[in-house]
Amino acid sequence: MSEVSSATLAATPGVARENQDEDEERSYQAGGKKTKSPRSNPLDVLSLVFQQGGPGFCQFALSNACNANCGFCNFARDTLPKEEWEFVERQGALDAIDILHKQGIRYLVLTGGEPTLHPNLVDIVRHGAESGIKVLLVSNAGLLKPHKIHELIDAGLSSFIISIDAANVTDHEENRGLPGVCERIRTANEIFAERNIKATASVTMSRLVDYDALPEFLASLGFSSVVFSYPLKYLPSFFLGYRDSHLVDYTADELEAAYEKVKQLKKRFHVVNPLLSLEEMQRFVRKEEQKYECLAGFRYFFLDWQLMLWRCHHWEEPMCSIYDFDETKLIRDGCTRCMINCYRDSSLMQGVAVSMHDAYQAVRKGNIVEGAKALGRKSTIDSIRAVAEEFSWIKKF
Ligand SMILES: C[S@@+](CC[C@H](N)C(=O)[O-])C[C@H]1O[C@@H](n2cnc3c(N)ncnc32)[C@H](O)[C@@H]1O
Ligand code: SF4
Ligand code: SF4
Prior knowledge:
The protein has 397 residues and is an alpha/beta fold. The protein has helices spanning 6-10, 16-19, 22-26, 42-52, 90-102, 121-130, 146-154, 169-176, 181-194, 214-221, 252-265, 275-285, 341-364, 368-375, 378-394; strands spanning 56-61, 105-111, 134-139, 159-164, 198-204, 225-229, 270-271, 300-303, 308-310, 320-321.
């Protein structure tokens, strides 16, 4: 377990008193080595589509430590004591990136806990970008001072995802336990715009959210797109981004209505979750048949701070240590047993690549009929529709 610098910890959670320093920090002068966020190589993508079902992604939780206190999350600072905090070792994280790249992972989502608490975050981002992986960061933004943002962008970070819990400053900052964080988010969004870096708000569907007021509030913070996290009361893996809290405790009718609200919101703001995926979640709530297989374990993975690789956040057992990860560990069984947006939404969109892979593999074995069937699946057409819906957002990575 590595040590977190005392400066980093001293910076939490009082965000307000630090905002006064930020004007000075805005005049950041770039220095040192710069790494560009990698561009997709069309040949690499094509080869991955036919050989593996497309580029994969991995959610990498760099630690279980958090500076915030969200009421719907078990990583919260009052829930997980500091004595239990763990941080992935720097070298282990760099090794993991190499292994993931070899296995066709081209998107790495750095998460936690709060990933900005990790003392080697910039090195990890740089190594990912230099390897040809697009690196995204999910953060509460409490520690995202201007200087840190510039450093991360200079290291090759592709995109920021910033969590927002409510449609007004007070409710968001109270739930996070981070006074002043909204001002920091506003400043961060200004810098992202100046540096032409994509940022998306991530809103957990909870009782804190006023869906009607949300677009205006997100716009006031500088966001132009939002992705919703579907509410989680329980997860069996190491990942603690869930809680048995009234904030995410819904009856089936309430949850179906909340998904309907998100669908309606699409008419007023850029909601990244595809419409067909929101409809799939409504069928899930009604216990109806699921149409789209989840690709977690096949193209998507979760890696924890101990470097154990899991199929997803919703699995009881890890697949293996990252050091043992190879093609023989892949699982594809059509699972649809949970509602985690990052796996379920992405699986719908990746369906077309997986169908091309299936068709190619069938034809290679001389089975033309099977190949044609794979391409003609209804889920392939739906996947194309979902990609078309979100193409403007996807292509900005
Ligand atoms: C666990 S956090 C880690 C990254 C960072 N600390 C943050 O909050 O952005 C990742 C995402 O999980 C969401 N989350 C936390 N608890 C949740 C729950 N019970 N249900 C659904 N999403 C949840 C957060 O709002 C956040 O957007
Ligand atoms: S949602 Fe993120 S910021 Fe909030 S307690 Fe969980 S890990 Fe920390
Ligand atoms: S549906 Fe849920 S439990 Fe099943 S593989 Fe996907 S993320 Fe994991």
